[in-house]
Write a structure and sequence with these properties.
Layout: E1 40-44, H1 46-54, E2 60-65, H2 67-75, H3 80-83, E3 87-88, H4 91-95, E4 107-112, H5 119-123, E5 132-136, H6 141-153, E6 158-162, H7 171-177, E7 186-189, H8 192-202, E8 205-209, E9 215-216, E10 225-230, H9 238-243, E11 246-249, H10 261-277
Parallel strand pairs: 2-3, 5-6, 5-10, 6-7, 8-10, 8-11, 9-11
Antiparallel strand pairs: 1-4, 2-4
Helix pairs in contact: 1-7, 6-7, 6-10
């Protein structure tokens, strides 16, 4: 994010955590771990699992919990019927079902993937103060999770990602989102530039974030906004940048080259809300 305009396109290198082909991997399967059923994902971490259980659109098949985490879950207001389904497990037993390095906090759930969201259904009507966040080839699960969390915090209408290069909304991504993937709809677009054209047709001003832009984010118009964020290092791809209505940059101190993309998105989402209030 916040880099000079990219030169004519070369194939983008995958971010840390990406496999380089298709969807990035969530992490290496633990030796001896059971295969996850097709169409299902593992969610782990207290807030990620609690949010999934509270989401009527999420079908949860199993919930594994240590005694301490079961007690914590009971305090969140989860209903008795759900609590009765908890499978009492030791931390190392949960470890064996998840990928290597999963920090589950004593709570994990096997759930079906969320129903696919469609752009026109979740982004219309365009509303000032309810921006859409568009992610151009951002593949790191931790970054995407943090972006969802910021989108939820600032009332974003949806997050649009590139279908082929985005990891499943599960695992480390869901944990970093702290429940936000259950709140903010995710649209998986085959082509980001075409998704921007569709947003324009709905009445959105597509604002691309780029370090070489002449305008600052303080100049956001008080209209419905689609904020377009590029991958760290590469920034926005040339066609995506050209499809945006205008490019903007964050005013940062001299000598600081760029911001983490999730930080840049949080600042931009805040400014979009401030522009609306102004």
């Amino acid at each position: 994010m916040d880099k000079r305009r990219p030169k004519p396109q070369k194939p983008a290198a995958p971010e840390k955590g990406a496999s380089g082909k298709g969807r990035p991997k969530l992490g290496r399967p633990r030796h001896g771990a059971q295969k996850t059923p097709e169409g299902a994902v593992w969610l782990y971490g207290r807030h990620a699992v609690a949010a999934a259980l509270a989401n009527p659109n999420r079908k949860v098949k199993r919930v594994l919990a240590t005694k301490n985490s079961a007690d914590w879950l009971a305090q969140t207001g989860i209903d008795e019927k759900t609590l009765s389904r908890l499978e009492d497990m030791k931390p190392d037993a949960i470890d064996r079902l998840l990928h290597e390095g999963a920090v589950h906090q004593g709570l994990a759930a096997l759930a079906e993937e969320l129903p696919r969201a469609r752009l026109k259904e979740v982004c219309a009507p365009a509303e000032t103060g309810a921006p859409v966040l568009v992610l151009d080839q951002i593949t790191d699960p931790q970054n995407i999770g943090a972006l969802f969390r910021s989108a939820a915090a600032f009332g974003a209408k949806a997050v649009i990602v590139q279908e082929r290069r985005t990891p499943p909304l599960a695992g480390a991504l869901a944990k970093a989102a702290a429940g936000a993937i259950e709140i903010v709809p995710c649209v998986q677009a085959v082509n980001i530039a075409r998704a921007l054209e569709a947003l324009k047709d709905l009445g959105y001003h597509c604002a691309g974030l780029a370090g070489e832009a002449d305008a600052y984010i303080t100049e956001f118009p008080a209209t419905p906004l689609a904020l377009v964020m590029g991958a760290e290092g590469a920034g926005l791809r040339q066609l995506v940048a050209a499809t945006c209505d205008k490019l903007y940059r964050i005013p940062i101190a001299p000598g600081v080259e760029s911001l983490n993309v999730s930080n840049a998105a949080a600042i931009s989402l805040y400014e979009a809300r401030r522009a609306r209030n102004g």
